[in-house]
Amino acid sequence: MNGFKREKLFISVLLLVVCFFFLSSFLRSEKKITQLIAVELKSFQLADQKFSRVWLREGVIAASDDSKKVISGKELIKGQFKGYDSEGRDVILRIESYDSKGTLNGLPTYQFSYFSKKTKEWKSICKPDYRGAESAVLISGFWDSKGSKIDKNELFTVGCTSGAIGKCAMWGYVPWSKYQSHSLEELHQACTRMVKADYWGTGETFTKDGTPIFFSDKYGINRGDAPENMIFEAAWDSAGAIFAERPRFQKLLKRPQTFPIKSSGEKQGLIVNYSIPQ
């Protein structure tokens, strides 16, 4: 009898382990799905309408049919796209809302959801930003695994305003715009490196969400004096830090790294930042 009870206990424990394994796999799978890489413009579908052309211009999606009638903005809500996640898997996306001036600097924003194959539900792609908005700025092209921008007009990126790509556009570094005849695309890219503390331009992140930083740029779009409790951290270009005195979070470094970084002899770059030593 004791042997029978031990066997039942063993089977029960084994079943719990198996259930935990499948639950963990499910949760990991769901998390990876939200790591959206790129969206195909030509994949757009809206009810039974047929479109001969779909494009993205200055953050706004537009579509036209054979009669050359153009629709955009709120007219495309509930339209669906095919995208790809970081594992190369297909993801079905849907436009949930559109705001022609969804950021403080007047950029158009969208809210996108993706269809979960596990739960059969639509879930928001973006986490809430500091305003509580699950919104995104749309930018032509995509970012590869090393954090480098790849120009491809047939694809676009959903730049969540809670993430580096969307934040940098909200802060004034709009990649399709110019400032005093200077393109802001490279400055936007430098900003994404700074936000993620991607010192070596490898696509790795060496910071934590919600960490305060102060920054200014060479054109004066953002300027001023850093708070007294913040000290110089790094100067950045589109490839990473060109001069860095220290890491934002020493404990987050995954391998022995040498600081200061001095690929440039001066504390100057497209953008410089200050932070509180952690």
Protein described:
- The model is unreliable at 8-34 (pLDDT under 50).
- This protein is an alpha+beta fold.
- α2 crosses α3.
- Helix content is 18%, strand content 34%.
- The strands form five sheets. A seven-stranded antiparallel beta sheet has the order 8-7-6-5-1-12-9. Strands 15-19-16-17-18 form a five-stranded antiparallel beta sheet.
- The protein is built from three helices and 19 strands.
- It has helices spanning 2-33, 164-170, 185-196; strands at residues 36-45, 53-57, 60-64, 70-72, 80-85, 90-99, 109-116, 121-124, 136-140, 142-143, 149-150, 155-160, 178-179, 182-183, 213-217, 231-237, 240-244, 261-262, 271-275.
- The longest helix is centred in the N-terminal third of the chain and has 32 residues, at 2-33.
- The protein folds into two domains: 33-170, no CATH class; 179-278, no CATH class.
- A hairpin with a 2-residue loop joins β16 and β17.
List the helices and strands and how they pair.
Elements: H1 2-33, E1 36-45, E2 53-57, E3 60-64, E4 70-72, E5 80-85, E6 90-99, E7 109-116, E8 121-124, E9 136-140, E10 142-143, E11 149-150, E12 155-160, H2 164-170, E13 178-179, E14 182-183, H3 185-196, E15 213-217, E16 231-237, E17 240-244, E18 261-262, E19 271-275
Antiparallel strand pairs: 1-5, 1-12, 2-3, 3-4, 5-6, 6-7, 7-8, 9-12, 10-11, 13-14, 15-19, 16-17, 16-19, 17-18
Helix pairs in contact: 2-3
Task: Provide a short characterization of the protein structure.
The protein is an alpha+beta fold and 278 residues long. It contains three helices and 19 strands.
